[in-house]
TrEMBL record:
Pfam families in UniProt: Bac_luciferase (PF00296)
Lineage per the UniProt record: Bacteria, Pseudomonadati, Pseudomonadota, Gammaproteobacteria, Lysobacterales
Designated name of the protein: TIGR03885 family FMN-dependent LLM class oxidoreductase
Family annotation (InterPro entries): F420-G6PD/mer (IPR050564), F420_G6P_DH-rel (IPR019945), Luciferase-like_dom (IPR011251), Luciferase-like_sf (IPR036661), Non-F420_Flavin_OxRdtase (IPR023907)
Luciferase-like domain residues: 7-292
Amino acid sequence: MTTLGYHASHEQFPPGELLDLAAHARQAGFDAMMCSDHFHPWSRAQGQSGHAWSWLGAAMARVDTSFGVVNSPVGRYHPAVIAQAVATLASMFPERFWLAVGSGEAINETITGEEWPSKDARNRRLLEAVQVMRALWRGETVNHRGAFRVEHAQLFTRPESLPQVYVAALSPETAAWGAQWADGLITVSQPMEKLRPIVQAFRDNGGADKPLLLQVKLSYAQSDEDALRGAHEQWRTNVVEPALTEDVSTPQAYEALGERVTPEKVAGSVHVSADPSKHVAWLRAYVELGFHALYLHNVNRWQREFIDVFGREVLPALR
């Protein structure tokens, strides 16, 4: 059975409210949770950016399901610190936490003032980070010289089983590369002609028997007009082509790019509808493509209405 999860967006809601929303989603029938890990929101209209790791401990203590986070473990963080954070959560909540790793975005990682590397360089240091974290989780004493340094590091609090590490991929090239070392794939909803090649590249390069996770961008409201307006207000900065945004380092710069984005363009990237049956059909297509877990992100402000309606009408239709 496909896992149907709730995506908690730290960029859009204060952490206390987000904690209540996660609990509400669980009560409504969502199977699992995941969250973002940002220093900045994508726009000032989103307006928040709580610390994911502080929130995860509280959320996992309150909500009795699995959690995951999409994180760049090297950049503004050090891999040994993320390894320790993961090990602590996995020790307290066995078999309930997973980590997805990506090469990062300038809007978050450049805050330390370090030079922003090329995509190839970011991928190389990401793989180094994963190798270091896994060594630490195995109990090894790690010394490392490469894109970053580690000196005599050893974790004394470790989970009984190695945490799962998924690759976050937005292109077939990254999916094919990550399939060789990751425990699974996570990507975001896109038109099928773009999504299928990502899935196929992962399967063809070592990921055939590994889980596929999808973060689904949707906008549900009481009317189609409200759903489109809410999506455009909150998410237009996020539908700009990645090639234009990978070096953008401030919310204000994202907003400038988003000024050119029409509501119609948003609707081409986000599933916008007030009709639950349309959402069922869209989500069923992802299940048929082979995704093992769908994490639903309602990109507008109306979260409780979305949770209640989907809990009653959408989730049961997919089970």
